[in-house]
Amino acid sequence: MPVVIGCLMPHPPIIIPEIGRDNIDRVSSTVRAMDVICAAVAQANPEALVVISPHSAGFADSIAVKATRILTGSFKDFGAPNIRLTANLDEELLTALFVEAERYGVSLTKIGNDHIKLFQSEELDHGVLVPLYFLQRYVDVPMVSLAVSYAGADEHYALGVTIEKAANRVDRRVAVIASGDLSHRLTPGAPAGFNPRGIDFDAKIDGIIDTGDFNELFELDPMLVEDAGECGLRSIYALAGCFNGRQVHTDIHSYEGPFGVGYLVASILPGQPDPEREFMVLDFGEAAGGASATKDDTAPPAPAESDPDSCIDDAADISLRTNEPLSEPVKLAKLGLEHYIRVGHIVEPPANTLQELLDRRAGTFVCIKIDGELRGCIGTIQPTEENIAREIMVNVIQAAHADPRFAPVSEAELPFLQYSVDILDAPEKIDSTSHLDPKLYGVIVRKGSKTGLLLPNIEGVDTVEHQLAIAKQKAGIPIHDETDLYRFKVTRYE
């Protein structure tokens, strides 16, 4: 029985209502699409799931496979410890995977249970848990949980072929879930920093899946992949391999990037056999002289090293910054956050605060970084507090504790934080893009209840068209839609 459906699913915990809370509306397209695609999975009537996650504990040179009979994990790291999901391991399918992996030269290694122990190898990671949260509303079947390695397109495509052959071996209807997000660099302030080519990468992957031209996966520009800072590409390689030698019917259910990370939800259904769609030669076992290329309980492969462009993350290497003179707005941000974390309530601006910051009202954005890497950034377009000083001191707390892209800032991090404060002039409505200049003016786009803002003078944003595209993307507004336009100037303090 071939793989009956393949799915690309993103894995931001924020799409879980109990975690996303007030931010859930910003990912509403993804949430709706997850329900649609899970209903499609149920309609395909699978007897087992295979989930491939780039966040699972793994190795640089081998695909890690969880061998624990009861697979379980929770969202405790995301503030929801009561959400715990459990599934049974499909042991027969797991055994078949190892048989087929030997034939096709795919390296597999069992972890957990009585096998190799890795950090958190007993727990399902959020790359598995987020799709499973939605799937278990529709299907209740055993599963196999796979990691990815640092190998490239050929090896992971062969993993997909191995999965399909294993499903046939046990005559099992299998749904394959490729868990992964696209570019992490879509907008200024994105988790991996901004790169204008992130949008190009996401458009390319969207097009490949939409057309089913999986051969183009092998022709992706390596520099485009590197610039994108993605984490789902290896999962996508494997997903494509599950349909090697078959026509496919694909469906893009949604795409959005509200937090600077691309979330694509798509499904693939198998069609008729088609020799012209065998996109690679798969006689790896013969090429290896028939020797076993799988790994089980022998010496473990080398653990994966840190990869700055993948979602297999190591702890950040934090170093103390130098003591540079601070501007008055930055002093207020620093004081406001440190007092709040240590005492538990907002402190009022000190008596010696510059009078200008006490007399004026304005919107402000406060960004927090560690060693140049963003740690949180939130702000207000229009003033909400009685003066600029208090606006800064309230917004720094929001940046530290309410930015949905990051865990809350801890007291231990305070000595290492760097701050910047942007004070916005009042927005001015304009009737033409000719009044915009991305180096001089920030822009606000507004359509109905949707609003997107982009600050001025962002590195890599050199044209009005690019500035508007990013602002619309942040708001979830289609790029060609007409919007109300506003411009504003900003004074930055560091």
How would you portray this structure in words?
Helix content is 29%, strand content 23%. It has helices at 17-20, 28-44, 91-104, 126-135, 153-169, 197-211, 222-228, 233-241, 284-287, 328-343, 355-359, 388-401, 464-475, and strands at 3-9, 48-52, 63-66, 70-75, 80-88, 108-111, 143-146, 174-179, 246-256, 263-273, 364-370, 373-379, 417-424, 428-430, 442-447, 450-454, 484-488, 490-493. Helix 3 crosses helix 5. The protein contains 13 helices and 18 strands. It has 494 residues and is α+β, with helices and mostly antiparallel strands. It is globular. A six-stranded mixed β-sheet has the order 7-2-8-1-10-9. A four-stranded antiparallel β-sheet has the order 12-11-13-18, covered by helices on one side. Residues 282-300 and 302-324 have low confidence and may be disordered. The chain folds into two domains: 3-287, Protocatechuate 4,5-dioxygenase, Chain B; 328-493, Hypothetical protein ph0010, domain 1 (Glycoprotein, Type 4 Pilin), CATH 3.30.700.20.
Task: Give a concise summary.
This protein is of the alpha+beta class and 494 residues long. The chain has helices at 17-20, 28-44, 91-104, 126-135, 153-169, 197-211, 222-228, 233-241, 284-287, 328-343, 355-359, 388-401, 464-475; strands spanning 3-9, 48-52, 63-66, 70-75, 80-88, 108-111, 143-146, 174-179, 246-256, 263-273, 364-370, 373-379, 417-424, 428-430, 442-447, 450-454, 484-488, 490-493.
